[in-house]
């Protein structure tokens, strides 16, 4: 496989790719096209066939691969070395750092990454330094509103929201108090709040009543008592109403927060998540969630339509962090794409409750294209059932 990530910046041609997740008027379904990206990283031309290109143009033969807006994992933990759960960078960190240690995440991870990495700032000063062993929300002394505001103002280019873990195992007897304070700060700082829902107290019902347009419920399909959206019809209606109020429902799979049963039932009633994310971290990577493509494959298998899965993995999360892509295929737009195949394959997986399922289609990413650079996909996989080599690139589990 040719590697283009470190090649000199010359024009890049993506040949014979099939757009998905873009404006349907501009990209007819299943139509193959060529996309020419200039050395400056901006789209120069899109057409069914581009035969005249400069001699130094690098070419990726998509061979009918899908191309979508660049995938964005909305909920990850990437402060590698700064917390005991974080892994190496993906894209949006969901509260690993608080105001007392955000500078480390910024200097050592965000500013050194090839990817665009954004972050939700944990309202607890220490963030997830020792996740679930030392709570970031034990007492009021764990939250410093002045320092939170100063940290946000100094990092507006990368901080995209505030993170609150509204769960009884974190906040003990505080119930809704941390979330109320987080919402107040969000209004003052003009930022959305991402809320982790889990074990009561608070109850999922009460959390929803405090949220507004643009706020994010992560772990929306968890199967925990008190946070289980199928446990009573009133709660399910509240979640539907939250969606209708433009509150973002985010999967946030994680090691303890995604149930096949809950997701399947919600999808059967047309309650779809707006965003799909992994909540990938060091405590889950050898268990139920180890990469983004497999997480997307789970939602596809549960009945979420292909194009909706792609939107929930690409343009929707960018809107959720107020960094929308715009018209990526328009001439002059900066390139940000993911090339992938959808393989007919068999892969045994689990949800975070340990329930097994077998996937029969799996997403197989080939390249991430950012500007004029292209990174071939590389993935970590735990020891799972092996499957046949990809016919396009030879990759094998």
Could you please describe the fold and organization of this structure?
- This protein is α/β, with parallel strands linked by helices and about 400 residues long.
- The chain folds into 2 domains: about 10-70 and about 330-345 and about 360-375, Roll (Urease, subunit C, domain 1), CATH 2.30.40; about 90-320, TIM Barrel (Alpha-Beta Barrel).
- The chain contains 10 helices and 14 strands.
- The chain has helices spanning about 100-110, 145-155, 170, 175-190, 205-210, 235-245, 260-270, 290-300, 305-315, 315-320, and strands at about 10-20, 35, 45, 60, 65-70, 90-95, 120, 160-165, 195, 215-220, 250, 335-350, 355-370, 375.
- The strands form 2 sheets. Strands 1, 2, 3, 4, 5, 12, 13 and 14 form an 8-stranded mixed β-sheet that branches. It has a 6-stranded parallel β-sheet with strand order 6-7-8-9-10-11.
- Strand 9 (about 195), helix 5 and strand 10 form a beta-alpha-beta unit.
- Helix 5 (about 205-210) packs parallel to helix 6 (about 235-245).
- It is globular.
- The protein starts with 11 loop residues before the first strand and ends in a 21-residue tail after the last strand.
- It comes from Candidatus Sodalis endolongispinus.
- This is Amidohydrolase/deacetylase family metallohydrolase.
